[in-house]
Amino acid sequence: MIKKILRWLKKAMLWFFAISILLVIVFKWVPIPFTPLMAIRALENKWDGKDAVLSHDWVPLEEISPNLQKAVIASEDGNFLNHYGFDFQAMQKAFKNNQKGKRIKGGSTISQQTAKNVFLWQGRSYLRKGLEAYFTVLIELIWGKERIMEVYLNSIEMGKGVYGAEEAAKHWYRKSAVNLTKREAAGIAAILPNPLKYKATNSSSYIERRKDKILRNMRHVGKLEY
Question: Are 71 and 218 contacting, i.e. CB atoms less than 8 angstroms apart?
């Protein structure tokens, strides 16, 4: 019985590795139509008796303003262009802050967030974190930084029912993502910690301060060389 279970587990793991690697290879070129979070939000709305609103329009990275690319780096992952998927210094800092009882911070990189958003569910379990690390390594090796940024900016939640840079630009500023100014890009990046709570326009004083900080940090991002 034990041998049968072990054989089954071995086959299941081999199938998992094969399918996961195949998916990552396919999504290196194919636009990602939806993510687990989109499905979860739709189900949540259905349970609450609301309409499942979902706005998502995939565009290539060339049609997303460099201002937004720099803004999310400045806001979410200052070392994105230099690390290999994990920013251990940021993770150590986040751990120390959490130990001191400060506001919980995860220290996740853009690569980790992309892996989680595209392939996994939300949560803080050790299993999910382990799978997140696995997929992060895969996309760093197979996709590279430019594709990771493209997928990230086309997949993340940027408002209630709003996913991706193009829809976010239309929703918040009534323009295409390619035409976002620095301040507008900073506005979208500023709400990413909680896009269901915060607003990029008519923002709270807290978000306005975040915009100012992101604008200052954008000056240090430099040329985008993926």
Answer: yes
| Helix axes 66-76 and 182-190, enclosed angle (nearest 10) | 40
CA distances from 45 to 36, 42, 50, 193 (A): 14, 5, 5, 21
Q: Which residues lie closer than 8 Å to 45 by C-beta, 6 or more apart?
A: 51, 52, 53
**Which residues, 6+ apart, have CB-to-CB distance to 95 below 8 Å?**
107
Instruction: Report the C-alpha gap between 116 and 136 in whole angstroms.
Output: 8
In 103-221, at which residue ranges do the beta strands (DSSP E only) sit?
157-159, 162-163
User: What is the number of alpha carbons within 13 Å of residue 47 lying toward its C-beta?
Assistant: 6
Specify which residues 162 forms β-bridges with: 55, 159
Helix/strand/coil for 32 = coil
Provide the CA 14 distance to its chain's centre, in angstroms. 27
pLDDT tens for each residue of 5-14: 888 999 999 9
At 101, is the pLDDT very low, low, confident or very high (cuts 50, 70, 90)? Answer: low
Instruction: Give the pTM.
Output: 0.89
Q: DSSP string spanning 170-186?
A: HHHHSS-GGG--HHHHH
Residue type, 110: I
